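Sample entry (200 residues):
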Amino acid sequence: MHPKTFQPHARKRRNPDRARWLRRIAAHLAAHVAAHVRNDGVAVAWAFLLRTLIAPWRRPARDPGERAAERFLRALNYRVLARNWRSPRDQRDEADLIVLSPNGREVAIVEVKRAAGPWDPLDRVDVRKREVLWRILTDIEALASARPSSSPLHRAAAHAECIRVDLVGVRGEGSTATVVEHATGIFTREFVRNARSRAP
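Predicted structure, serialized as tokens:
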């Protein structure tokens, strides 16, 4: 091979769209940092830069109402199996909490509703949300019938006698959020297979 045609390290072609996008983001970030330096000082600008760079890797903050509901249920000896569980069939269907009852016989899908005004938080569960909760219930029922898995939710559902939907009403904002109502068994579905397997 002729030495002039040999290229052991061919340069990779750069994506001009990606480079343009990165330059635009860097310029936007630099403008914000400069504005913070002028208006608030170097310390605030530095904090803003760190917060912006770390944000993509930070877990999103949980809703205070959901945290209050979890504390309430834990105090009643419920065991949390999943938080913000999304259906594998449709990622838009989400359960706030999935818990196991204190006796270990019931899996409960918990919908948390907050209300800062005078209305009842549980009145905010409309027909559309009830349909979503019913679909999640059938999804977990199908999960329990699937092949064994090591996940706590799968193990609990596989041994439970029934699955139900609970509603927890919360009032207040931030750290002052408190549970004011717990409605159990809005929907309930028994696992017939478990009853048959335990029959003599």
